[in-house]
Amino acid sequence: MTTEQDAKSPNTVVLFSGHMIDAPDRKTPRFSPDKEPAAAAAIAAALVRIGVREGDLAICGAACGGDLLFAEAALAQGMRLEIYIPFDEPTFLASSVDFAGGNWRARYFAAKSKATLHVMPDELGPLPAGENAYERDNQWMLQRAARFGDEKIAFICLWNGEGGDGPGGAKHLMEEAGRKTTWIYWLDTRKLWD
After folding, report:
1. Distance of alpha carbon 93 from alpha carbon 99, whole angstroms
2. Which of 194, 187, 190 is nearest to 17 (CA)?
């Protein structure tokens, strides 16, 4: 570890995964826009329970919904923020931010302006044949969270306990993070929305 890394070594690294805000045409609601205040409050409360301090590290994606709510809460606590996206930025914005409308695009750029953005194809190269971009991104975030030691990782997951719409969602990272840490805060949306 270099001296620079030592100087920036956080006491805690908080990794996040969670549902995106529902697309307007989603048939089965999972995270409707009216649930945003409850989700934001639960994420902020989890950071308080973890006991994060200024200079601790937050790692997440940047999709509309859970990711950006977590990013905003982490920045409000004075945490350093690293954002990891699986595609080039225009592709990511189209698939994971812009579809929700509202002010999500502006919130993405506001969070990005205070974060270090990592773009998977730029840093890891093209997606290998047979791999899923979202699963690869989850593994990458987990690997980056573990660089300071598994014992420093706390994981917050805003999740309904079910499989996702495809590979690489919250369920996948919940399973993977459980191999690295027992410091897991599951914000079960089935209870949170009641």
Report:
1. 8
2. 187
